[in-house]
Amino acid sequence: MQVLDVLDERIIDLNAQANNKEEVLTLLSKKLKDAGYIDDVESFKKDIYLRESEGTTGIGNYIAIPHGKSDSVTQVGIAIAKLDHEIEWETLDGKGVKLIFLFAVSNNHEYARNHMLLLADIARKLGNDEAVERMLNATTVEDLKSVFA
Amino acid sequence: MKIVAVAACTSGIAHTYIAKEKLIRASEALGHSIHVETQGTIGTEDELTPEQIAEADVVILAVDIAITGTERFEGKKTIKVPTSLVVKAPKQLLQKIESELNK
Fold this sequence. Notes:
The complex is a heterodimer of chains A (149) and B (103).
Chain A: H1 3-6, E1 12-13, H2 21-34, H3 41-54, E2 58-60, E3 63-64, E4 67-70, E5 77-87, E6 97-106, H4 113-125, H5 129-137, H6 141-148
Parallel strand pairs in A: 1-5, 3-6, 4-6
Antiparallel strand pairs in A: 2-3, 5-6
Helix pairs in contact in A: 2-3, 5-6
Chain B: E1 2-8, H1 15-30, E2 33-40, E3 43-45, H2 50-55, E4 58-63, E5 78-81, H3 83-88, H4 90-101
Parallel strand pairs in B: 1-2, 1-4, 4-5
Antiparallel strand pairs in B: 2-3
Helix pairs in contact in B: 1-4
């Protein structure tokens, strides 16, 4: 199991259409549901918003990392949306957000330890400004995967 | 500087690891050596060794929650900051620490 195996095309949308946080979270949550990662969109979103209320998930450089632990998660994964314009988000640098990584993590994470390690690897890449620049310029899933390869 | 650090965020999923990478890259850019332990949902990774701690000039705790093992740093110069500060301005943080140490 490698990072590339976590990057699932079914839950990645690099031409996402959304005008605000709610629309992006709904769009990505629906993708997670359709691909079998979560069993309920609304309860999953509720847990994501709980984490949103606890602190800023906009890490700067147009990147946001909404995440949370939810009982509705049946498979650990990460849904990704890229927008062609900034949307409002609470961020550390005051800019908007164009690239959203939605982490889906179950409350029972012991069984999913390998997946959690891979999510940590992905998070680390988000701390690398050059890698983030390449992600922002990615137009295909292959482009995006190449950043993590 | 020789730095050891511990990163730990509220949910232990993302900020912990972003902070780790930011600290490592900023240290490399500024010519410092660093070891970063993470305490996340998956437990402790890259646990600091007693030697690394003994050699360190400074301990950075980039933590939003209570962490385990702080007794290891007794007697060391220790700076505690939230992970958000490390994610936002890692180089500035290290520069500030360095100037404080050189006072």
